[in-house]
Inverse folding.
């Protein structure tokens, strides 16, 4: 009995030919749940499986194809894939070669937008703590928008009505279409080079979600986040919220409202200044009253301290005066004693044995002096 014996390679090749003969080079659509996704390779290729309740099939998406896919797949995601069926002869397995993919039941653009929002939020670009306050008074503002649209006219009209001295610099850019994100980024960058700019308004009028797509672009979001000036975003209608709105410091519902937030009316400024003046005067008056009371208290404390010091010094002086009086040798003379000195040289005489007959002496009394001479002496024995 003749038999056909295949090598492994021949068998895999035959199976490949059979599968390709059945499906040809046509693209088919396959729905399933992603499992075992691996997309971290340096080549940029994706490898995963598609499965349903009964079975699964291997799949791959090469870098040249998956670059067009608007989101990164995740395990458990229900998707529809455009793919060719092929056989990987080396391992003897058949698989799908995916060229396109979209979420099942959700548009790819919507999913890509949500993924980008989540990414930027995790990086902190939406944090309220990073939002900067608008200037109290703006003298020069920049506006990024289409120079021919209604938005720029609305902004300029409101600005000049509220404060005609404010300078408005329009940095033109397309606000929809494929080139719009790059033009918006360049328009913002031009304004960032103006040192004395006070703030920036990024705006356009209403439109469909597709029309607002440029303001959901990642590069536009990052350029707004990098602004050295506060940024007001006014894109679309009030119900439309773009990534540009979330990244900006302040969101306005319309271009006109953005201009109202950016520029205060002179009347409002004058009223605020008058109120600040009243508050300042009241504060100064209160501070002066407080300082006056504190000064009175310090004055009383100082007066009491000085009085106490003076009284203390007076008592000490009286004490020292009494001591000096008691120690003063001339004070003894007031009690009838005298100081005896030699008339010749003024030497005080303490011992009568040193005196000579007829020697002249001076007696200093409590009042005045007396002159006398020695008629005789009596010496008392030493103690």
């Amino acid at each position: 009995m003749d038999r056909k014996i295949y090598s492994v390679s021949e068998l895999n090749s035959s199976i490949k030919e059979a599968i390709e003969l059945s499906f040809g080079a046509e693209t088919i659509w396959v729905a399933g749940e992603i499992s075992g996704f691996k997309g971290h390779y340096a080549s940029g290729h994706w490898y995963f499986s598609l499965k349903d309740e009964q079975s699964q099939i291997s799949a791959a998406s090469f870098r040249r194809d998956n670059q067009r896919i608007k989101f990164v797949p995740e395990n458990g995601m229900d998707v529809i894939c455009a793919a060719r069926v092929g056989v990987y002869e080396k391992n003897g397995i058949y698989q799908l070669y995916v060229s396109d993919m979209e979420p099942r039941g959700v548009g790819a653009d919507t999913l890509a937008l949500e993924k980008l929002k989540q990414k930027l939020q995790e990086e902190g670009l939406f944090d309220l703590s990073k939002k900067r306050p608008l200037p109290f008074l703006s003298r020069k503002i920049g506006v990024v928008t289409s120079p021919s649209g209604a938005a720029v006219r609305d902004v300029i009209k409101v600005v000049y009505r509220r404060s005609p001295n404010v300078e408005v610099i329009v940095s033109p850019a397309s606000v929809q279409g494929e080139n719009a994100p790059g033009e918006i980024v360049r328009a913002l960058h031009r304004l960032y080079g103006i040192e004395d700019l006070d703030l920036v308004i990024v705006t356009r009028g209403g439109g469909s979600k597709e029309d607002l797509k440029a303001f959901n672009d990642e590069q536009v979001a990052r350029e707004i986040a990098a602004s050295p000036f506060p940024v007001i975003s006014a894109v679309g209608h009030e119900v439309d919220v773009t990534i540009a709105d979330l990244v900006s410091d302040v969101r306005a519902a319309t271009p006109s409202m953005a201009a109202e937030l950016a520029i205060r009316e002179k009347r409002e400024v004058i009223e605020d200044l008058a109120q600040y003046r009243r508050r300042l005067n009241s504060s100064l008056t209160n501070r002066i009253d407080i300082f006056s009371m504190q000064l009175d208290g310090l004055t009383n404390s100082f007066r009491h301290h000085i009085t106490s010091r003076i009284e203390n010094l007076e008592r000490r002086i009286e004490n020292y005066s009494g001591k000096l009086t008691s120690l003063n040798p001339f004070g003894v003379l007031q009690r009838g004693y005298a100081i005896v000195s030699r008339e010749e040289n003024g030497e005080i005489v303490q011992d009568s044995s040193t005196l000579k007959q007829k020697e002249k002496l001076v007696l200093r009394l409590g009042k005045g002096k007396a002159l006398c001479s020695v008629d005789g002496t009596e010496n008392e024995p030493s103690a």
